[in-house]
Amino acid sequence: MIVTTSFITLIMIMIWQTPLPAILAFLTVFGFIDMVYFSSVLFKFVQGGYLPLAFSVGLLFIMYTWHYGATWRHNYELQHQVSESDVQDLVRWTARIDGISLLYTELASGIPCIFSHSVKNLPALHAVVVFVCVKFLPVTTVMDKERFLFCRVGERDIHMFRCVARYGYKEVRQDSDHFELELLQNLEEFITQEAEESRGGQSKMFRTNTEIVVDNASHDTITTSLHGMGHASHILMQESMEEIAFLRRCKAAGVVYLLGNSEVKAREGASNVKKVVVDYVYDTLRRNCRRPSVALIIPHERLLEVGMVYDV
Hints:
single chain; alpha/beta; six-stranded mixed beta sheet
């Protein structure tokens, strides 16, 4: 109860931004009640008051172990990210097959090491790869038009993207088909918008250059430049339409979900305490928690898991 009161106080300060008098009033009232219960436990410690304390210590140990293992795993992924240049080299030397691969990762930026591990161990890679990161924000709901954030990974010809799907803490994710359809529709909009922004950037650059040289340029020079500008814009839009058509063909071929099944192990030379905590306690908790495929609502018939061991 004391821990719950403390966390609610932090939420009132950091998220709700409650006025200070209300925070102090809440902390005083509920903190007093919690301390009365806690003091009664201490007063009857020998008569059985040690039992709830023992239970609370056990729960805190489980929570700390889970946080410790999850933090080490996340730091390992951050330290072993794959650069975009390495990704392009891996992709260019790997056979590509029709279809779309949605690779789930906890990293909102950067390429997870599980991707290079899967490319090296699998015979082929799908024609379109999207790195999907699902984030729950400290807001109730997220507007549909603000749910997906996209960016391109590498050059256009390798067809790889990064996507951050954002949800509020009160939102319930829909089935995989609805999520898949919504994601691919927003990806098409991103490709179109990217081409329009590139065309607008070229137009702005042309106008700036024209203002500089207009006094010294002839009419034929400006006309030729306008024609080249229009031709470049036409090429950009044509490439975006071709990429959207390619994306739809890959969608018709099938969408596969790629999920990393990482296992955390204590490295050689680690202390015995760390080996017990990581190799046994954390591993037991990880095996008994809800699987990521269930939490992310991934259909089993289209799920491909890639195993990897993290030495921490």
